[in-house]
Structure prediction request, 346 residues.
Amino acid sequence: MNILITGGAGYIGSHVAKQLLETTSYNIIILDNLSTGSQKTLDTLKIIREFKFIELDLKEFDKVNIVVKENKINTIIHFAASIVVPESVENPLKYYMNNTVNTTNLINCAVENSVSKFIFSSTAAVYGEPRNIPNTGVDETYPTDPINPYGMSKLMSEKVLQDTASVNSNFKYVIFRYFNVAGADINYDNNDLNPRIGQSFPNATHLIKIASECAIGKREKMSIFGNDFDTKDGTGIRDYIHVDDLANAHIKAIKYLENNPSDIFNAGYGKGYSVKEVIETVKESTKVDFKVEIASRRAGDPATLISDNRKIKSKMKWTPKFEDLSLICQSAYEWENRLGENIDTK
Prediction:
């Protein structure tokens, strides 16, 4: 099998590539423009085993089509996208062009070259601001209503996939709606947690990464955006999933599509932690205290967003291994320690 991973030098894509390289004999082709992906990450992955890397931007439609054709791609796992919500509000065209237009072209390349499987990285942002959430969390049938261009660009890409598959019987997809992805490569060296790859995205916006940067002294302080939500401690509650568990879901999706129809799956743990709980867990697991300030709420932040993950567990037989919040935080912290040792992340 020849698998194309777009955005494979990035955070989640690299963890999927890592698991494919470690656990399968598939031919792996990574395509990335390295705008936010890391050359250092690619170098680390090559220690596992060889793969092909192509530095290319998805907007170069003709060249992308040649890559898919010449490499006889069977499966595409698509991560390459712009992901910063506030930026999407300020520059919506960037998001519709980079996310929706480029994804549409990639789907077109897939159909033209008889690619049978397409695994797509979507987001819980397609649900917008859920209200009256059941105790079991938001499931895949919950109404979609994005409140920012990032979420809408992903939802539009979902629709392109669905409509394309409806008229092409040999083309199937899995769409994963990610909740809050965190942590780094679970790798032990002499019983010490020593991540080989992790989140190198510049100007981080993810809570656990920001808290980890505070713990190593890269940041002087951090902010909690809103402490007056209708939650147990007033701060927002989110569903955090370790990146290695999320990567494993993508590996399972490849096999799943062999004997099952196209489908959409939430990717989360089905349980939530408040912002305060996460920060305290980072402090406890790292044994480092740091300054935390209260800031005003950000527009569009729902009080609670937790996945109903029963579908992915039952249909795909996905069993997470790294649900412990302390482990998630510790792996993120150890990765920041590595970055703090002047490791070149580009």
